[in-house]
């Protein structure tokens, strides 16, 4: 028998019940009625929702040999995102792309990227300390593009007119326009792509034809520039340069190799940006809402690191409370709330239920963060929950922020380091507080979140000032840091 789920209508199945607002929270409610494995049907599609860590680990991790395919991402392909490891079916090209990412983003290799992250975290904090109220999103959104452009192409962004900054804005916009992955009308009914643009449901097809040239530029521009720099002897260490060197060595530089390289570089820009931005924005929101956590973290940094320098990666192990804040931001924010859907390649049986071959399998990561059996008061932001008793409740760090099995996020170590150093630097140097209205009363953010491919707090105001007269100067003086010297 199929897993339980909401009753289906003839022909259209569960189409009428599919939520348009806050899908992860609606799915989590369904799981309370039907259990942690929920079955849905849409015309031509079987969908399985996994709402517990247990079910997701049992299927997506332990049975990853058959759960690592992806459903077709018709719309993303139309936008020009091909080849892109995130959307490639399970197979040879997928393995090639994962290996390329792994070679530059694995747990050991990312240590080499830390000087870049340190420098960009300090630049971020310097900008936040000198911005006008309301500009924080602008600077948070720049942080990852600044890191990734150096990692991928060896280029440092220093001005607002930088072509990479322009490309990264475009990427965010195009992802925003393309709706949740695998879940737009075009994904469900691919034949709609051939209908005229005025036909209902083809809005996305029109958007795709407008955005495609820009997505292609994100594929072409980095390789074109690094090659030119390489020829003139000016290329700096980067993912693209190292891949070109490897290709030269093995004498394979076919057109397909070049497309694969362009695709794996482009995906590093695309997959990291809104996720890192959303997580950092959730951090600021949490700090506005919970000044007591901020104070505690700030005190820990002051006592361990002192107030004459900023924290760096070597301090991470000595800052347990900052670690709790970092982990709680990941759990509370759940930046990719429904993960990226997997596809099961064969019929499977789980706890006596049939998971039909070809089903699209969504891991409701947001739902898992709200599991009351694991997390007490799960909607609340409580960093102490991870501390051992009597200081806390000894709850486990949330293990699924980056997804599951053979599809787990390739950027997880880079992302974890980026966010840790940004958070630690902000906590060391900044005081983040409520904005005030014209009567001088604190404006308390509603704390609402918008859900798309990623989740992001809805617009809120905050004031960011330097913790002490010295801290702004310490940040400024730390900016002269040159990553090449490390
Ligand atoms: C806070 C930051 C980030 C979060 C929360 C995040 C989360 C995720 C999640 C949940 C998935 C889906 C995994 C699955 O299918 O089970 C994913 C996939 C992916 N992520 Fe990330 N990610 C982040 C940053 C990054 C960065 C910085 C990069 C690259 C530099 C990256 C590259 C990728 C790629 C390539 C995939 C697709 C992997 C595949 O399909 O095999 N991500 N990420």
Automatic annotation (TrEMBL):
Heme binds at residue 409. Keywords: Heme, Iron, Metal-binding, Monooxygenase, Oxidoreductase, Signal. Its cofactor is heme. Pathway: Secondary metabolite biosynthesis. The keyword rRNA-binding does not apply. SUPFAM superfamilies: Cytochrome P450. The keyword Iron applies. GO terms for molecular function: heme binding; iron ion binding; monooxygenase activity; oxidoreductase activity, acting on paired donors, with incorporation or reduction of molecular oxygen. It holds the Pfam family p450. InterPro entries: Cyt_P450, Cyt_P450_E_grp-I, Cyt_P450_sf, Cytochrome_P450_fung. Belongs to the cytochrome P450 family. This is Cytochrome P450.
């Amino acid at each position: 028998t199929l897993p339980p789920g909401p009753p289906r209508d003839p022909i259209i199945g569960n189409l009428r019940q599919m939520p348009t607002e806050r899908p992860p929270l609606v799915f989590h409610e369904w799981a309370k009625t039907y259990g942690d494995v929920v079955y849905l049907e849409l015309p031509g599609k079987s969908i399985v929702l996994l709402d517990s860590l247990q079910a997701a680990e049992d299927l997506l991790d332990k049975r990853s040999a058959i759960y690592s395919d992806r459903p077709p991402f018709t719309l993303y392909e139309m936008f020009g995102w091909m080849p892109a490891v995130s959307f490639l079916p399970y197979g040879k090209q997928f393995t090639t792309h994962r290996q390329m990412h792994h070679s530059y983003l694995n747990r050991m290799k990312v240590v080499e990227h830390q000087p870049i992250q340190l420098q960009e975290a300090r630049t971020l904090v310097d900008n936040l300390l000198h911005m006008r109220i309301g500009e924080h999103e602008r600077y948070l959104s720049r942080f990852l593009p600044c890191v990734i452009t150096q990692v991928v192409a060896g280029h440092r962004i220093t001005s607002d007119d930088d072509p990479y900054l322009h490309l990264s804005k475009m990427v965010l916009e195009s992802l925003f326009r393309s709706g949740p992955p695998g879940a737009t009308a075009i994904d469900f009914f691919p034949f709609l792509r051939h209908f005229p643009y005025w036909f209902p449901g083809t809005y996305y097809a029109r958007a795709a034809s407008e955005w495609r040239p820009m997505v292609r530029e994100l594929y072409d521009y980095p390789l074109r520039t690094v090659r030119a720099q390489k020829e003139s002897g000016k290329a700096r260490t980067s993912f693209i340069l190292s891949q070109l060197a490897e290709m030269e060595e093995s004498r394979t530089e076919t057109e397909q190799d070049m497309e694969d390289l362009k695709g794996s570089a482009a995906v590093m820009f695309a997959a990291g940006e809104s996720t890192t931005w959303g997580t950092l924005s959730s951090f600021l929101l949490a700090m506005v809402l919970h000044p007591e956590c901020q104070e505690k973290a700030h005190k820990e940094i002051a006592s361990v690191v002192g107030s004459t320098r900023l924290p760096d990666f070597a301090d991470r192990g000595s800052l347990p409370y900052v670690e709790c804040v970092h982990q709680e931001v990941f759990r509370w924010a759940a930046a990719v709330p429904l993960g990226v859907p997997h596809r099961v390649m064969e019929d499977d049986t789980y706890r006596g239920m049939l998971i039909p071959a070809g089903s699209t399998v969504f891991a409701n990561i947001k739902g898992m963060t709200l599991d009351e059996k694991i997390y007490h008061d799960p909607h609340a932001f409580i960093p102490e929950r991870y501390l051992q008793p009597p200081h806390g409740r000894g709850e486990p760090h949330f293990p699924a922020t980056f997804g599951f099995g053979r599809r787990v996020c390739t950027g997880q170590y880079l992302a974890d380091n980026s966010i840790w150093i940004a958070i630690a630097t902000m906590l060391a140097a900044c005081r983040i507080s409520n904005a005030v209205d014209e009567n001088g009363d604190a404006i308390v953010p509603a704390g609402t979140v918008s859900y798309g491919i990623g989740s992001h707090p809805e617009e809120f105001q905050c004031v960011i000032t330097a913790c002490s007269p010295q801290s702004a100067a310490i940040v400024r003086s730390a900016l002269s840091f040159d990553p090449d010297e490390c």
